[in-house]
Design goal:
This protein has 129 residues and is α+β, with helices and mostly antiparallel strands. It is built from 3 helices and 9 strands.
Length: 129
């Protein structure tokens, strides 16, 4: 199943899991109105089904309305690894006190090769054969 970050947060909220507040916009003109709900500074995040959004320029911090307008206009319509950004999530900027790592392993059949994935800062995966 592929879902966007904003959709995952909606699911979390539905089941009582706290999340940062965020608003999805599809037009740069709507970003200013949405920021009134989120506040400044806020993060403008491309909503596409691909990793590496930040490295591709699809995640930007906006400290004020001018930066917000500039970032929203630049990210909406941007091509990230062959996918065009049609939505951005405006989310409150929060201090990250601690980032947790996650790891998993699985054996793929019929090859019976063991694969490991890990997460530290953003998603990274490695495979050993």
């Amino acid at each position: 199943m592929k879902i966007h970050e904003y959709q995952a947060k909606e699911l979390f909220r539905r089941f009582g899991i706290p999340t940062s507040k965020g608003v999805v916009v599809t037009d740069p003109a709507d970003a200013t109105r949405a920021a009134a709900q989120v506040g400044y500074p806020c993060v403008v995040k491309a909503q596409v089904h691909v990793g590496g959004r930040g490295k591709a320029g699809g995640v930007k911090l906006a400290r004020n309305e001018d930066e917000l307008k500039r970032h929203a206009a630049a990210i909406l319509g941007m091509d990230i690894k062959g996918l065009v950004v049609e939505r951005v999530l405006l989310d409150e900027a929060v201090e990250i006190a601690r980032e947790l790592s996650w790891a998993s392993s699985w054996t793929g059949r019929p090859s019976t090769r063991c694969s490991w994935s890990r997460q530290r800062a953003g998603w990274t995966s490695r495979r050993w054969r």
